[in-house]
Write a structure and sequence with these properties.
Layout (H helix, E strand, L loop, with lengths): L14 E3 L6 E3 L4 E9 L2 E8 L2 E6 L4 E16 L4 E4 L4 E4 L4 E18 L6
Length: 121
């Protein structure tokens, strides 16, 4: 029988990191990730971050869905088109995306990352 992964009932260790120095745009924000589920190319959990900005480059075939719980972010693509997200708002960052990820207010979000190159068929 398969079990549900209930985030608020799961005791998950936190992993901390910071953006790579060569990608930093502003600040040096601490990022915290609680990975609640990681199976066959699908990762999901909770992510929070301090104010700051860095360049992002998603691998082809690796997509992220996120839903902001608190705080505010801005994502700007390589052509300069920007979108902001706050509590209750969601987005998908597609594989191959290049741009800047900026945390305007300390943020917490749920995320699901799908790596289509590693999904078992």
């Amino acid at each position: 029988m398969l079990n549900l992964t209930v985030f608020h009932q799961t005791e998950t260790p936190v992993a901390h990191d910071r953006p790579r120095p060569e990608r930093l745009v502003r600040g040096n924000p601490l990022r915290s990730t609680w990975t609640h589920y990681a199976v066959d190319g699908v990762d999901s959990g909770l992510w929070s971050c301090e104010i700051g900005a860095w360049n992002i480059a998603f691998d082809d075939g690796k997509d992220e869905f996120f839903h902001v719980i608190s705080g505010r972010i801005r994502i700007t693509n390589a052509d300069g088109l920007a979108a902001e997200f706050g509590p209750g708002q969601a987005c998908i960052i597609p594989g191959g995306f290049r741009g800047t990820f900026e945390v305007l207010e300390p943020v917490t979000k749920h995320y699901v990352i799908v790596d289509r190159g590693t999904i078992r068929r």
